[in-house]
Amino acid sequence: MTEAPISPLRRRMIDDMTMRKLAPRTQEGYIRAIKGFSAFLGASPDTASFEDLRRYQLHVVSSGAGVPTINHTLTALRFLFMVTLRKPDVVIYLPFVRAPRRLPVVLSPEEAARLLDAAPGLKYKAALSVAYGAGLRASEVISLKVTDIDSARMVIRVEQGKGRKDRYVMLSPHLLDLLRTWWRAARPQDWLFPGQNPVNPLTTRQLNRACHAAAQMAEIEKPVSLHTLRHSFATHLLEQKVDIRVIQVLLGHKKLDTTALYTRVGLKALGEVTSPLEHLAVTVTPPA
């Protein structure tokens, strides 16, 4: 994590995370959360009691932190006390905060087409088209390599996506043509979408900036991020009556409940339902 001298407790926690192959960013986040708790406590975390942890959780909540931050902090503390310190009773009764389930913003097919056409350059048009055409996350798009495009089987290999799992997603003929056009223009050698230094891939920040710029150029008034394209991919497949279990596999969702959220935003399917009001012989009398 760092070359500076570190305490034996932090060293042990890092070793525990490394043995479990936690991602580097996850390790950094956990260490940052424990440092915050240690600063609040004014002592080494291994001296903390349940009441100390309870006071700290109240402190984090009252500071205005969002639900993801609160739960991430609690997850880090649970790892420290349950795995590294082996003191589960100190932390196990602290409650996670339930996040409100909000419906995702979804573009119409026409809006998606306008956004892709407005992408700032061929590289970004190809990358954004992968996000929409295959339903990939930003981190998955930038991690693609040239060899991940399997034109013989018409699939894209997603290596070590969220949850450290590999999967295959669809490769449409139109997307393949676009990717071939991009490859002929730039000849990427390793990363499909290299950054300014070809040794490194494009960053998620650069990709999101391009998405925002394209949405602005396309005059789309909805709040749009790269994840909006993934939401739109799933919703449009559902509206095409693709089985939700197939969509679950394409998205790489562990639970079907997560994918089922899109049944609540499939407006085309809602529009095909006939209201019971239509079956009533109600006379509409214009005002005198």
Question: Care to describe what's here?
Answer:
It is built from 14 helices and 3 strands. Strand 1 and strand 2 form a beta hairpin. A 3-stranded antiparallel beta sheet has the order 1-2-3. It has helices at residues 8-19, 24-41, 50-62, 67-84, 88-91, 109-117, 122-134, 138-142, 173-186, 204-217, 226-239, 244-251, 256-260, 267-271; strands spanning 149-150, 155-161, 165-170. It folds into 2 domains: 8-91, Orthogonal Bundle (DNA polymerase, domain 1); 109-271, Orthogonal Bundle (hpI Integrase, Chain A), CATH 1.10.443. The chain has 288 residues and is mostly helical.
Q: How would the blueprint of this fold be written?
A:
Layout: H1 8-19, H2 24-41, H3 50-62, H4 67-84, H5 88-91, H6 109-117, H7 122-134, H8 138-142, E1 149-150, E2 155-161, E3 165-170, H9 173-186, H10 204-217, H11 226-239, H12 244-251, H13 256-260, H14 267-271
Antiparallel strand pairs: 1-2, 2-3
Question: Main sheet?
Answer: 3 strands, antiparallel
Number of strands: 3
- Overall 3D form: globular
Q: What fraction of the residues are assigned to beta strands by DSSP?
A: 5-15%
CATH fold group of the largest domain: hpI Integrase, Chain A
For the record, give the distance between the C-alpha atoms at the N and C termini, rounded to a whole number. 78 Å
CATH superfamily of the largest domain: Intergrase catalytic core
The overall pLDDT, averaged over residues, is 87
Helix content: 40-55%
Give the C-level CATH assignment of the largest domain: Mainly Alpha
Q: SSE order in H/E notation?
A: HHHHHHHHEEEHHHHHH
Low-confidence runs of at least 5 consecutive residues: none
The domain tally reads 2
Put simply, the count of helices is 14
Strands of the biggest beta sheet: in what spatial order?
A: 1-2-3
The second-level CATH architecture of the largest domain is Orthogonal Bundle
